[in-house]
Prior knowledge:
Blueprint: E1 2-7, H1 19-26, E2 31-36, E3 49-50, E4 60-61, H2 63-73, E5 82-92, H3 95-102, E6 106-110, H4 119-126, E7 131-135, H5 145-156, E8 189-190, E9 193-194, H6 204-222, H7 224-229
Amino acid sequence: xxxxxxxxxxxxxxxxxxxxxxxxxxxxxxxxxxxxxxxxxxxxxxxxxxxxxxxxxxxxxxxxxxxxxxxxxxxxxxxxxxxxxxxxxxxxxxxxxxxxxxxxxxxxxxxxxxxxxxxxxxxxxxxxxxxxxxxxxxxxxxxxxxxxxxxxxxxxxxxxxxxxxxxxxxxxxxxxxxxxxxxxxxxxxxxxxxxxxxxxxxxxxxxxxxxxxxxxxxxxxxxxxxxxxxxxxxxxxxxxxx
Length: 242
Ligand SMILES: COC(=O)COc1cccc(COC(=O)c2cn[nH]c2)c1
């Protein structure tokens, strides 16, 4: 997979060179480049923003640098990337959206700053490539860079070969759309708190049932919306656990 990121703060994307993603890049599974949007400015001050038409606080990202960046990075005649823009107005990032993005051969991320990117940039992009605005939650960040790190992590961990067998693909598909059960490791007792006996019983059927029950209780308490979203009949699976 090829990943390009357009940002006015390329250093924010430095963590992509670390750890698993760094190793995946070394192994040629990923090709990640961060591009300074100011490279496509034309004035001596390398301006990327201006005041909003219609008034209001803050600044808006000007369209010209984005357009020139698209012209260079996404030339005509080349199969285009999917343009992914973190935005409070975007579609919620879910594991299924991450899986959809992981199937793309090329992702181009656009990091908004200030009050946002001139809408015509999104409109112009949509004439050349598929565009997906994605939200990490109903919260406002300073810019898209941190969100891009999260999306890139969610997507690249799904790519074949990126996660070694040491890492667990803790995907919701393993627990059928429920939250994960609590996890424990050594020591068996810590600050007078023991590990639940069932997990040390060696009875794998009992352990699977306990984990399923814990996942159900947690989901019901913390995320009843996930229960409601389960495909009909999912909960009947409980008795399928040996
Ligand atoms: C068309 O899209 C844009 O103009 C995006 O512009 C901006 C402006 C400021 C900050 C951000 C970063 O995204 C979030 O804050 C965000 C993402 N998820 N939840 C919050 C993006």
